[in-house]
Design a protein that fits this description.
The complex is a heterodimer of chains A (556) and B (335). Chain A has 556 residues and is mainly alpha-helical. Chain A is built from 21 helices and two strands. Chain A has a two-stranded parallel ribbon. Chain A is globular and about 80 Å long. With 335 residues, chain B is an alpha/beta fold. Chain B contains 14 helices and ten strands. Chain B has helices at residues 3-19, 32-46, 57-67, 81-89, 99-104, 161-174, 176-189, 198-207, 217-226, 264-275, 277-285, 300-303, 316-320, 322-331; strands at residues 24-28, 50-54, 75-78, 93-94, 117-128, 153-154, 212-216, 233-235, 249-258, 290-291. In chain B, strands 1, 2, 3, 4, 5, 6, 7, 8, 9 and 10 form a ten-stranded mixed β-sheet that branches. In chain B, helix 6 (161-174) crosses helix 7 and helix 6 (161-174) packs across helix 14 (322-331). The relative contact order of chain B is 0.19. The chains are: A mainly alpha (556), B alpha/beta (335). The interface between A and B is large, with 56 and 53 residues.
Chain lengths: 556, 335
C-alpha cells in the first residue's frame, strides 16, 4: 500500500517542496481551528440526541411539523425570490444605469440593513392591519373592506424580502460594477440588445454572487424568531422556541435545531457547486464611465421603483419609529443611553474586527491550500449564521460554563479563589459568540473579493521576490479594502441588532441598545422600543455611509 | 502575628460581616424598567448593593443549570408561575422558611414547598367593546366557546405563557377532554388569526373586528391611559361560579432563592422586603398590576376597574400542567 500511495505523489516536486507542504498544512490547520470553534455549539446541539424525549417529539411531529414544513418551504421560496428580484434589479440599475438620484440610491438602498426585520414587521402590521390607519380610513370613508390580510404568508414574505434584499443588492452590485460593463460589451459584440445582454450574459455571470447574497438572506430567514413572532407565523425556529420555552424541553429544541442546521448544510453544498463556477474578472475597469443613460421615461420608472422600495423598506418604518420615539423620549431618554450606545458601538466594533480578521484568515487559507477538505472546513466554519440565536447562545454558554467550573475548581484548590466567574464574566465569551454567529457574513464578501485577485498577480509579485506576508500586506490587502469594508459593515450592523447572544453572554452591567429593545418588546411595549430601535438605526447608518463613500473612492 | 491576634482578627471580620452588607445577585425575566427603581430603593434603604441581569426565563434557567454551584445568582425573578414551577422542578431553587412571606402572601400564590413566592398578581380577564356587546351577554371564559360568539372573539397567540396558564388551570378543573372542547370552541369563534400581543387584540376589539378578547389587565390599563376614548371595558368572568373554576384566572410575577446562592440570606431578605407593605405598591403599580399582599390596596387607577373574586387554585398547577396545555392547544388548532 505505501508504495502505491507514494506513486500518486507528484514526482517532480518543486524546490523546497517539503516547506511548501508544511506551510499548506499550516493553512489547513488554521482553518480547522476556526471550524472547531464553530463545531463547539454544533456538537453541544447535536448531543441533544443522547436525550430523546419521545413524547415531545411525537407530539411535535404529529401536530406541529406538518404545518411548519409547508410554512418554511413557502417562506424560503418566497423570500428567496423576493430578495433576488429586488436585490438584483436594484443592483443593476444603480451599478449599470444612469438616472437622476442614482448616487443617492446607490448607498441609501443599503439602509434597510440597519433596521431589524421585526421592527419593519411591527410597523407594517401597525399600518396595514384591520386596525391600522389605511384600512380604517377606507372603511370609514368608502365602506371598503376585504383588503388582503397583512398578517399572512404573503405579508411575512413581503416584509422579510424588504428587510433582507440588501444582502443580495450589496454583493450583486459589486459583481455588476466589476464585470457588468465587460459582459455588456461582449453581448453587444454578439449583436444582442442591452436587455438580452442583461439576461443572457450579465445575469448568468453574476449568479454565484447572487447565490452568496441569497444564502445569507435565507439563513437569516430560517433563523429568524422576532419577525415570525410578530406575524405569529410558525417555522422551524418558532417550533424550536416552543419546545424550549413552552414544552420545557431544551433537548427537543436542540434536536429540531440540528435538523435545521443539516438542511442548511445541504443548501450550502448546492451553493458551493454554483460558487465553483464563479468566473472572476479583474478589478480596475471603471464601470462608472460606461453606465447606460436611461431615456427620460425609463429614468422616471427607475426613480419610481428605487424610490418606492426605499420608502417602503426604510423611510416609512423609520418615520413611524421617529413618531413613536417622540411620544416617549421625554420620559425614557436618560444619561444611561450614552452608555448603552457606547456598549453597542464598542461590542459591534470589536466583534466586526474579529469577524473580518478571522474571515480573512479563513478565505486566505482557502487560497493558499485549495481542495475539498478546505472547502468543507470553510462551510462548517460559517454554519453559525444558520442557528437560531438563542440556541447558539446556549450551545456556547454550556461549554463555557463547564470550562469555568473546571477553572474555578482549580482556583479554589490551589489559589484560594472565591468567586463564581472567570471566563463567563468577560467580554471574551461574547466576542467569541459573535464570531461564531457572524463569520458567514464576513466570509462571503472577503472570499469573493479574494477570488477576484487573479493568480497572475500573485505570480507576478512572486517573480519579483515578494514573500507571502509581503504579498498579503502590499498587494492583496489594498486590493481587498472594499471587500473587507463590506464584511466589516455587515458584521457591525448585524451585531448591533443581535439580541439572544447579547442577552445571554453579557457581563453584568453591559446592557446595549439591543438589550433595551428586548426589555420593551418582551412586555409588548412597542412604542417605547422605538427609542432604542431608532438609536440602533442611527448607529448602524454611520458605517453604511462610510462603506459607500469608501466604495465610490475605490471605484471612482 | 501571634495566634491571639489572628483569632481576634477572624472574630472581628466575622462580626463585621453582617454590617458590611453583602451584595445580592438577581437573574430577572421581569424587565429592567420594572425592577430597577425597586432595587435602587432597596439599596438606599439597606445599603445592600444589587447586581442583576435580564433575559427570558428559558435562557436564564439554562444558565443557572450550566453554572451549577458556581452561579453568581442568588435569586431568580420571573413574570409567571409556570417558569418558577419549572425552575423548582429542575432543582434550581431552594426552600425558604419565612413567616413574613407566609403571612404576606396568600397560600395559592406561593409554592406549597416554599421554593418560590408570588410578588404581584396578574389578572387575565375579558375586555369587550360596549358598543357591540350587550350587558349580561358575558359570563365565563368557558362561555366564549359557545356558538353565539362565532366571529366575535379575538385571542392572543397560544405561544404566550399567559394563555398556556389559563388553559392549564382549566385542565386542572375539567380534565383534558372538556378543556379541549372549550379550546376548540374558542378557535371556531375566532374572527381573525391570533395576535402576537394583548394590545393588538384589544385594538381589534375597539375597531370592531371582533367584540371580546382575553387580556392581562395591565395591558388594558396601558392602552386606556394612552387612548382613553377607545370603546373598551373590563369584565370580570366566572364571578358567580363555584368550584375549581370560580373566579378570575390569576398568575404571578414572583421569585425564589437559587439552590446554589452564595448569599441566600440576602436574597431572602430582598424577597421579604419586596412582599412587605412599603414595597408592594412600588412593585405592582409601576406596571399596573395587583399587589400580592392582600393588606395593600392597588393603585387608584387599577382599583377603578372594580373588585373581583380570584381563582383560588394554587398557581403551581399552571406550571405542572403547562406542557399538557400547550399540547392540547396544538391539537385544538389554537395557534
Amino acid at each position: 500500500m505505501p508504495a502505491t500511495a507514494d506513486s500518486t505523489l507528484p514526482t517532480q516536486a518543486p524546490p523546497g517542496g517539503a516547506f511548501v507542504c508544511a506551510a499548506r498544512r499550516g493553512w489547513l490547520l488554521a482553518a480547522l481551528a476556526v471550524a472547531a470553534l464553530v463545531l463547539v455549539p454544533v456538537v453541544v446541539t447535536f448531543s441533544a440526541f443522547l436525550d430523546i424525549e419521545g413524547e415531545v417529539l411525537v407530539h411535535l411531529a404529529e401536530f406541529v411539523l406538518p404545518d411548519l414544513l409547508v410554512n418554511t418551504f413557502w417562506l424560503v421560496l418566497g423570500v428567496g425570490l423576493g430578495v433576488s428580484v429586488l436585490g438584483v434589479s436594484l443592483a443593476w440599475i444603480t451599478a449599470m444605469c444612469e438616472f437622476p438620484g442614482r448616487r443617492l440610491f446607490d448607498w441609501a438602498l443599503l439602509l434597510p440593513l440597519a433596521l431589524p426585520a421585526y421592527v419593519t414587521a411591527f410597523v407594517a402590521i401597525g399600518l396595514l392591519d384591520f386596525t391600522g390607519p389605511l384600512q380604517t380610513w377606507l372603511r370609514e370613508n368608502w365602506n371598503l373592506t376585504g383588503l388582503p390580510e397583512i398578517r399572512s404568508r404573503g405579508g411575512v414574505i413581503l416584509v422579510m424580502s424588504l428587510a433582507l434584499y440588501p444582502y443580495v443588492y450589496l454583493i450583486a452590485k459589486n459583481a455588476f460594477a466589476t464585470q457588468g460593463a465587460i459582459a455588456l460589451e461582449a453581448a453587444q459584440s454578439l449583436g444582442l440588445s442591452r436587455w438580452q445582454g442583461f439576461f443572457r450574459v450579465a445575469l448568468p455571470m453574476a449568479r454565484p454572487w447572487i447565490a452568496a447574497g441569497l444564502m445569507l438572506a435565507l439563513m437569516e430567514t430560517l433563523a429568524d424568531f422576532g419577525t415570525m413572532a410578530v406575524f405569529n407565523y410558525d417555522t422551524f425556529t418558532t417550533a424550536i422556541y416552543k419546545a424550549w420555552y413552552s414544552l420545557f424541553s431544551l433537548p427537543a429544541a436542540a434536536q429540531l435545531a440540528s435538523i435545521l442546521i443539516l438542511l442548511v448544510l445541504v443548501a450550502v453544498v448546492f451553493e458551493q457547486r454554483s460558487r465553483a463556477q464563479m468566473r472572476y474578472g479583474t478589478i480596475g475597469r471603471s464601470a462608472a464611465t460606461r453606465r447606460i443613460r436611461l431615456t427620460p421615461p425609463l429614468a422616471a420608472l427607475a426613480l419610481l421603483y428605487a424610490g418606492t422600495v426605499l420608502a417602503v423598506a426604510f423611510v416609512i418604518p423609520v418615520t413611524q419609529l421617529a413618531l413613536w420615539t417622540r411620544e416617549v423620549i421625554a420620559t425614557d431618554l436618560d444619561a444611561r443611553y450614552w452608555e448603552f450606545a457606547w456598549h453597542s458601538l464598542l461590542l459591534a466594533g470589536m466583534g466586526a474586527a474579529g469577524v473580518v480578521a478571522v474571515a480573512l484568515l479563513l478565505a486566505y487559507a482557502g487560497r493558499q491550500r485549495p481542495g475539498p477538505a478546505m472547502i468543507w472546513t470553510q462551510r462548517v466554519a460559517t454554519l453559525g449564521y444558520a442557528f437560531p440565536g438563542a440556541v447558539l447562545a446556549v450551545g456556547l454558554f454550556i461549554p463555557v460554563a463547564a470550562l469555568d467550573n473546571w477553572l474555578i475548581g482549580i482556583g479554589e484548590n490551589w489559589f484560594g479563589f472565591d468567586g463564581t466567574e472567570i471566563l463567563k464574566g468577560t467580554l471574551l465569551v461574547m466576542l467569541l459568540a459573535y464570531l461564531v454567529r457572524f463569520l458567514a457574513v464576513g466570509f462571503g464578501p472577503v472570499d469573493s473579493g479574494l477570488h477576484r485577485i487573479t493568480r497572475s498577480i500573485d505570480e507576478g509579485a512572486r517573480s519579483l521576490g515578494t514573500g507571502t506576508g509581503e504579498l498579503l500586506a502590499r498587494v492583496h490587502l489594498p486590493m481587498l479594502r472594499a471587500s473587507l469594508f463590506t464584511a466589516a459593515t455587515l458584521a457591525f450592523v448585524d451585531i448591533m441588532k443581535e439580541m439572544p447572544i447579547t442577552l445571554m453572554t453579557r457581563p453584568f452591567g453591559w446592557d446595549t441598545l439591543a438589550v433595551r429593545v428586548f426589555e420593551m418588546t418582551s412586555e409588548g411595549e412597542w412604542t417605547r422600543a422605538a427609542l432604542p430601535s431608532l438609536a440602533i438605526v442611527v448607529a448602524g447608518i454611520i458605517p453604511i455611509i462610510l462603506l459607500t463613500r469608501r466604495g465610490t473612492h475605490t471605484h471612482g | 502575628m501571634s495566634f491571639a491576634h489572628f483569632i481576634t482578627a477572624v472574630a472581628l471580620a466575622a462580626a463585621a460581616l453582617p454590617a458590611l452588607a453583602q451584595e445580592v445577585v438577581v437573574y430577572s425575566a421581569r424587565n429592567e424598567q420594572l425592577i430597577k427603581p425597586l432595587f435602587d430603593a432597596y439599596t438606599r434603604e439597606t445599603g445592600t448593593p444589587i447586581r442583576f441581569i435580564t433575559d427570558k426565563e428559558g435562557p436564564l434557567m439554562a444558565r443557572l443549570k450550566a453554572e451549577g454551584k458556581n452561579t453568581p445568582a442568588d435569586m431568580l425573578l420571573t413574570v409567571d408561575a409556570g417558569n418558577l414551577w419549572q425552575a423548582a422542578e429542575e432543582g434550581l431553587l431552594r426552600p425558604v422558611r419565612s413567616t413574613l412571606l407566609e403571612t404576606a402572601i396568600p397560600a395559592h400564590l406561593r409554592d406549597p414547598d416554599n421554593e418560590w413566592f408570588g410578588l404581584s398578581v396578574r389578572a387575565r380577564t375579558l375586555v369587550y367593546n360596549p358598543n357591540r356587546v350587550k350587558p349580561g351577554e358575558l359570563t365565563t371564559y368557558e362561555d366564549l366557546a359557545q356558538p353565539k360568539w362565532k366571529n366575535r372573539l379575538c385571542l392572543r397567540t397560544s405561544k404566550k405563557v399567559y394563555n398556556q396558564s389559563l388553559v392549564a388551570m382549566m385542565i386542572h378543573a375539567y380534565g383534558e377532554d372538556k378543556t379541549e372542547d372549550i379550546t376548540r370552541g374558542w378557535v371556531a369563534n375566532l374572527a381573525t388569526a391570533p395576535f402576537p400581543d394583548d394590545t393588538k387584540a384589544m385594538e381589534a376589539v375597539a375597531a370592531g373586528q371582533c367584540d371580546v378578547t382575553l387580556v392581562n389587565t395591565y395591558y388594558f390599563g396601558r392602552l386606556m391611559e394612552k387612548n382613553p376614548n377607545l370603546p373598551l371595558a373590563i369584565f370580570w368572568p366566572n364571578q358567580n361560579v363555584s368550584g375549581a373554576t370560580a373566579g378570575v384566572h390569576v398568575n404571578i410575577s414572583g421569585a425564589g432563592v437559587t439552590r446554589h446562592a452564595h448569599n441566600p440570606a440576602g436574597a431572602q431578605k430582598l424577597i421579604e422586603w419586596l412582599a412587605s407593605a412599603k414595597a408592594q405598591n412600588m412593585f405592582a403599580d409601576v406596571n399596573m398590576e395587583y399587589p400580592v399582599n392582600p393588606r395593600v390596596a392597588p393603585d387608584k387607577q387599577v382599583a377603578a376597574w372594580g373588585t373581583f373574586k380570584q381563582n383560588l387554585v394554587n398557581v403551581k398547577e399552571a406550571g405542572r400542567l403547562q406542557v399538557k396545555a400547550v399540547r392540547l392547544m396544538d391539537r385544538a388548532g389554537y395557534r
